[in-house]
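User: What would this chain look like folded?
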Amino acid sequence: MRSTYSENQTVVLEFILLGFKNIKQGKSFLAILFLTVYTICFLGNLLLITAAALNHSLHTPMYFFLGNLSFLDICYISVTVPKMLADLWAESAGISRRGCATQLYFLVALVGTEGFLLAAMALDRYFAICRPLVYARLMTKWTCLLMAAISWVCGFLNASLHTTLTFSLSFCQSNEINHFFCDIPPLLSISCSDTTINEVALLTVGVFVGLSPFFFTLISYVFILHAILSNHQKRQHHKVISTCGSHLTVVILFYGSSIFTYVRPTSSYSLEKDQLVGVLYSILTPTLNPVIYSLRNKEVKLAMRKLMGDRILFS
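Assistant: Here's the prediction, encoded as structure tokens.
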């Protein structure tokens, strides 16, 4: 264990990630699987961003936020998967204290930002469906830019708080993290300091960053559902339900996994369950986002067909 000593306390300079410790065989298969998933996620989200940028019909608030979400997903999966691939091939999955702090910072920042972006997308759908007469006046270019900027700023401010609190702790008993990557709960579980402040901050801020956008999104969709059911033009029902259904699918996947991870006492931390949930929200969700939005949205399908020049794509 790499460490140094200061005032009779051991300061850990390197952590060991134990996520793949019990996997003796099949590492090559996992490496190929993760690389394939990473490639699909990267190219899928990049294709979605490009299609939305080059197709004038997609220059709307909804696709502006979707472009932000796709860019975030590319960053998101890039924070964890490359390191996981390196650990699968290395004999010892070590990560420096600074590297761990950096990974944690960007992971938490992107998780927080995604929550606010999903809430902004819900608000956009609410105005588009429930307040169509004032939609164009409310959801202007500058309004969308402001909402996106607030989402990113809040996400990174949240990460600054938690990263500072987490790495202000002492790690003197163990440097082994029971996870695939650096995250708050497994780091708190190996600290030899009092983590009460960290846990209170995690739960308190988690309510604002996690639960508040989640409930705001749900309330928005209650009004949206009511508006859809009140509309007797059934031809419009399928298009609206398809678009909103895509968003709700992403919301359930993201919030379900992230709230389970962060908005609960660390005393309930479980190695097996948290590792599985960690893979869900850090790898699976960013990969599924472009698939969910493209396969369930005719406008995105047409834009991708035009971009790729393939008339049978998604047919």
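The longest strand covers residues 3-6. If you want, I can go into more detail on any region.
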